[in-house]
Write a structure and sequence with these properties.
single chain; 428 residues; alpha+beta; SH3 type barrels; Aminopeptidase; 8-stranded mixed beta sheet; 5-stranded antiparallel beta sheet; disordered N terminus; binds zinc ion
Length: 428
């Protein structure tokens, strides 16, 4: 049986109906482009198998009221709720106009699209990070986050610069985590949905004068021994997949990490995605990006959810590298978020799908720029586990398929295109 942990009791006030209403509100807000939506992005998920009796039991045990609480009410540690939860833009507190730089004085402090703890979380900031404040009330501050008006709890903002923490991991884990191994923190949102998580990702920090202060998670697809005999929930709220792929539409669980395909020449996909990841790591570090490598060997014990949650908490974007299972060398594309209302209204997809698309579009533009072959419009809609749990810009990008060239020269070219795409994404 899956164990579900919840956030603090006081954050678990939403009924199933209230959550549905909130999701509707979010969808409406997204439609009129209010709030603090930034970039878009998307990601891919794993394979699925038809549901067994045991899985059905598990799903029924989860659905829907309890499972849903874990979706809308993340247990963000550093945010107590200074204001009631029902605030919208219309009922927001009066704000004094400000034009000042303020600093974050907490770890993982939420950035929201409305001033209220029920508002959608669009990002998080850490100790010492600065942000422009344009409005102030005792409870909430209006800030400019990635070019948009957003809100943060005033109690975690200060006009004097506090000492920065080493990394998010250091803040969340209470350890002195620096560049080095990063494991899954069980307190992170959605961490409980992962079933394979004893492995460690590795954080590298750029050292040149061109440091960007951005962490790019490079996720070499596949490469988890035993991953295909374990299943995880497709969606954090227990709802079924909305599109078919390696996991059929309608399935509520999918393989935790599949083994991947085999190229026409007999090379395993996992080997090529790893080789490409190593190439991309060096290129990103040289360009001043910090890099979080999910995997640097043939086997890391991190399932797709664990990889995603680590990226959510440790990186500014998440790029999963894959090759598709067709054989006609059809070119590169990313997995875009299906335009299905229920899926785009489900958190965290609702708050982040546009960021996923922005990242995917940037990567495809970068690949195009180096002359890589691109499939059709450069994207295919897919409901993926990665996308379904991502709270930072996140895509599954397929660099080709079984018929594609995966020589060192080809990987070098793709690495340049992807690095160009990352630069483009953060410039936009
Ligand atoms: Zn793959």
């Amino acid at each position: 049986m899956r164990k579900i942990k919840f956030g603090r009791k006081e954050e678990r006030t939403g009924s199933w109906r209230a959550i549905l209403a909130a999701a509707g509100l979010l969808a409406a807000a997204a439609a009129v482009s209010t709030g603090c939506q930034m970039k878009k992005y998307e990601k891919i998920e794993l394979t699925g198998i038809s549901e067994t009796e045991e899985e059905k039991e598990e799903r029924e045990a989860l659905a829907p009221s309890e499972a849903s609480d874990t979706v809308q009410n993340p247990p963000r540690k550093a945010e107590s709720s200074p204001v009631g939860a029902e605030i919208t833009k219309e009922t927001a507190p009066e704000m004094e106009a400000r034009d000042e730089t303020v600093y974050v004085s907490g770890s993982n402090v939420n950035v929201r699209d409305f001033p209220g703890t029920k508002a959608s979380v669009v990002g998080a900031m850490n100790q010492g990070e600065s942000i422009k404040r344009t409005g102030y009330s005792q409870s909430w501050s209006r800030v400019i986050y990635q070019g948009r008006e957003c809100y943060m709890s005033s109690q975690f903002l200060t006009t004097t610069q506090p000492a920065p923490l080493e990394t998010t991991a250091a803040a969340s884990q209470g350890t002195s985590a620096q560049a080095g191994e990063v494991g899954l923190n069980s307190g992170w949102k959605y961490a409980d949905f992962s079933k394979i998580n004893s492995g460690k990702a590795i954080l590298y920090k750029a050292e040149g004068a061109n440091r960007k202060g951005k962490v790019v998670c490079v996720n070499a697809g596949h490469g988890t021994s035993g991953g295909s005999s374990v299943k995880t929930l497709c969606h954090p709220d227990g709802t079924p997949k909305v599109t078919g792929g390696s996991t059929a539409a309608g399935a509520t669980t999918a393989i935790a990490v599949s083994s991947g395909m085999t190229f026409s020449d007999g090379t395993p996909e996992a080997k090529v995605t790893l080789a490409l990841a190593m190439v991309l790591k060096e290129k990103l570090l040289a360009r001043g990006f910090d890099v979080l490598m999910i995997r640097e060997s043939d086997d890391v014990q991190l399932d797709n959810i664990a990889r995603t949650v680590i990226a959510n908490n440790m990186a500014d974007c998440h790029i999963a590298l894959h090759y598709d299972s067709t054989t006609n060398d059809k070119g590169a594309f990313y997995m875009s978020v299906p335009n299905i209302a229920s899926y785009r209204a489900m958190e965290p997809v609702a708050s982040h799908w546009q960021q996923h698309h922005a990242l995917g579009d940037s990567l495809i533009a970068g690949l195009k720029g180096v002359g890589a072959k691109i499939y059709s419009g450069g994207k295919i809609d897919m409901d993926l586990t990665q996308t379904s749990y991502s709270t930072v810009p996140s895509v599954d990008i397929e660099l080709g398929d079984k018929g594609s060239d995966h020589s060192a020269a080809s990987l070098d070219k793709l690495g340049n295109g992807l690095a160009d795409g990352v630069e483009l994404f953060f410039k936009n």
